[in-house]
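Researcher: We're reviewing a set of sequences before deciding which ones to prioritize for further study. For each one, I'd like a predicted 3D structure that I can look through quickly. This is Response regulator. If possible, include the structure in token form so it fits the rest of the review sheet.
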Amino acid sequence: MTDSSSINTNSANILIVEDEAAIRTLISFACAAAGYEVVCAENAIEAQTIVDTNPPDLILLDYMLPELSGVDWLEKLHADPKTKHLPVIMLTARGSESDRVRGLNAGADDYIVKPFMPRELIARIQAVLRRYQFQKQTGEDSKNTEVVCGPLTMNEASFEAKVDGQPLTLSAKEFKLLLVFAKNPERVYSREMLLSLVWDNAYVDERTVDVHMLRLRKQLQGTRAENLLQTVRGLGYRAHVTE
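Model: Here's the predicted structure for Response regulator, in token form for your review sheet.
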């Protein structure tokens, strides 16, 4: 995989995981025309082999795949420390709210419903790659920088978050969202502000914020930081430190 700190968002390596040949060809053509290097897999097993041997810069992943579904494979990717920060966009015909929520909860950085417009697909790929590039660069510029918020400690360089020394398993987007609150406890952030800071306002709605906040609260449940994130009625969210 290309070092994220030097990714050219128009020449990244894209892994397309799609079992329907016609759709796979269409996506491949759109990505190649935009200057991306493309590799394809028909199922999650084949895709895992590619990730293990030559990790891509970003994955375009179908929800429904033979043998192992795309969303189940995504959960496995994000449970593995080696691949949990790998950018993934789900590209699928499943467009119900429950499907979107499950995909985002599994760790997807974006969720695109078929049919799609090639120009929109490329724009959303670029947006995700830019965010990851920024996260990598800011992490390198702040080596050994730790942010402490009550019992929560976050290291920007290593993308590590711990509560009382116990690590949390977070996706890159969850980490960045939690970091916003940890850096500015007591400050209230609207959903619109969080979309701008974490998602760069790229083709996602405010429900995306709520989904990720719910996931963060589940991660903190049972720890001394379980009440760290608070909803401020009518305004948004904040981190509140009680000690």
